[in-house]
Amino acid sequence: MKKLLIVLALIVFAESAQAQLFSKERLANLENFDKRFLTWGYFLGFNSYDYKFEYENQFMDDNTDVLVEGQSGFNVGLIGDMRVNQFINLRLEPGLYYTQRNLMFPNFEEEKDFLREVKSTYIHVPLLVKFSTKRLNNIKPFVVAGISTSFNLSSNEDNPEDNFQGQFRTTKTTSYYEVGFGIDLYLYFFKFTPSIRGVFAMSDELVRDEDPNSPWTGNITKMATRGVFINFTFQ
Description:
The strands form two sheets. Strands 1, 2, 3, 4, 5, 6, 8, 9 and 11 form a nine-stranded antiparallel sheet that branches. Strands 7-10 form a two-stranded antiparallel ribbon. The protein has a single domain, classed as Porin. The chain has helices at 2-22, 111-114; strands spanning 38-55, 67-83, 88-92, 95-104, 115-132, 139-152, 169-170, 173-186, 191-201, 206-207, 220-234. Helix content is 11%, strand content 54%. By secondary structure, it is mainly beta.
């Protein structure tokens, strides 16, 4: 599903760029839009989250790894953009992100033991630096990079029960770094921006079971989120 989202985003980018570059219409839309010091907007989009596991035993094989089945989620949020100069902007993009990951642990026979559904509702707040090229006709490609933090409203970090009672626990807060790219499309009434971004957690999100030899968490040294965001921005 993650590969499908990426392919769809690339198709949108390519079609939009081709339409703008090769269209006979050369009138510039929103000519003074990028001269504003502050601009505002909102975004809608999709996400695909995953987990990367690191293990205490580095010689584990595929039959002992935790398998992650990601599901597509959706995003909605606001944008605040501050102009630094013609090519650099600072962006704050607080949003609400819904997602689910299914974890399958090896060496169990019953579903109540090997399957853990991790449903997450994040308040995700990234601070990004946007590096743009010179505007060409009515398009302007860009890349973004930055850091972010999220607060998981669905976290059960303080739950006294653990995997022995069927509860897989994750931390409330996580820090990330992010990189991505997109294209600003200047339409007649507003600026439309499709973008794609990779998100990589820097902190460990696993809350371990009380038993240090737990078959679910005993051999895991780090569990960190990886994700892909596809957002459509309106300003």
